[in-house]
Write a structure and sequence with these properties.
alpha/beta, Rossmann fold, binds 2-acetamido-2-deoxy-beta-D-glucopyranose
């Protein structure tokens, strides 16, 4: 089970991420938006009736506040590191956490929801935000932004910002491979085709709403999209190679353990099963590649970001 999960995590899941060079002055992009799953979720699921939550100890124990926030890691997640990389003074907030909507919208917001995927039923099954719901919230966001910043500033934020779309891992790991029904209806290839179609649709919808620079996690051919939308700039954040190296030779990269996760026995604990009373949780998560059986440690997120930083920086400058 654990090795299957690690394998899925390796192959399908992790794809993204960033670094922590402190850049002084103005952020490099007007705003940052994140859509997708637990790799970028910074607490939206805290506001939903779902089991896909991470707002309890030991999640967040190494975060800035040393407390759980809903992030699926011991510390910062990919979206936080991206935010630091681009020089934002604070992390983009979880959209559902905003009780007031004012200037806190100006640097962008985060719509990520753990358990979400390109197959809408994945999110519905876990009662989390589907990608269409995330997009609907983004439409609401735009209306609020116009009220706060005025039409022309709002447009320059919308067109000039970077959009992270990190999704797809949950579709296989939490849905297809755990659903005998889906496996009966579709072969893995047919299921992939459905995901791909939904992925195209999502990018098209986002484009129609003004997004021009979109960073996506690894998923196949994008030529079709680029032909259709010449103004679209799309980057695929493929950390497969670097993560693979991390898992096969952890000690070369300052890690000690890549097979077992830090939380509990490190073999199957995730979400509610990774908790305060989990037995065996490691003391120093920085030595581990995985925090729980699905999600990377903060140290891994940072490593991946360091690896992607030059690509991301040159992407936003073009
Ligand atoms: C935790 O592990 C990291 C990586 O091996 C190391 O740099 C750090 O000093 C350790 N922290 C403690 C408190 O032992």
């Amino acid at each position: 089970m654990a090795s299957l999960i690690l394998f899925l995590t390796l192959v399908i899941h992790l794809e993204i991420v960033l670094v922590v060079d402190v850049i002084k002055g103005e952020p490099l992009v007007p705003a940052l938006f994140a859509f997708g799953d637990s790799i970028v979720d910074v607490g939206n699921n805290n506001y939903l009736a779902t089991v896909a939550k991470a707002n309890f100890f030991p999640y967040g124990r190494d975060f800035v506040s040393h407390s759980p926030t809903g992030r699926f890691s011991n510390g910062k997640v990919v979206s936080d590191y991206t935010s630091e990389l681009f020089g934002f003074p604070s992390y983009q907030p979880a959209y559902l956490s905003l009780t007031t909507k004012g200037n806190n919208l100006l640097n962008g917001v985060n719509f990520g929801s753990a358990g979400s995927g390109y197959y809408e039923f994945t999110a519905k099954k876990y009662q989390v935000l589907t990608l269409s719901q995330q997009l609907n919230y983004y439409k609401d966001y735009q209306k609020e932004l116009v009220k706060i910043a005025g039409q022309s500033t709002a447009l320059s934020i919308i067109y000039g910002s970077i959009y992270f779309v990190i999704s797809g891992s949950a579709d296989f790991a939490l849905n297809y491979y755990t659903s005998p029904v889906l496996q009966t209806i579709y072969t893995p290839y047919q299921f992939s085709d459905i995901l791909l179609q939904n992925y195209f649709n999502f990018i098209q919808d986002l484009y129609a709403l003004g997004a021009r620079k979109i960073a996506v996690s690894t998923l196949p051919p994008i030529e079709k999209l680029l032909q259709k939308f010449p103004k679209l700039r799309l980057i695929i954040l493929d950390t497969y190679q670097s993560l693979y190296k991390l898992i096969t030779k952890p000690s070369d990269y300052g890690f000690f353990e890549s097979r077992r996760a830090c939380c509990g026995t490190g073999l199957l604990e995730v979400a509610i099963f990774c908790n305060r009373i989990s037995v065996g949780t490691c003391t120093n998560a920085s030595e581990y590649v995985f925090w729980d059986s699905f999600h990377p440690t903060e140290a891994t997120n940072k490593y991946l970001i360091d690896y992607l930083a030059p690509t991301l920086i040159s992407f936003i400058q073009t």
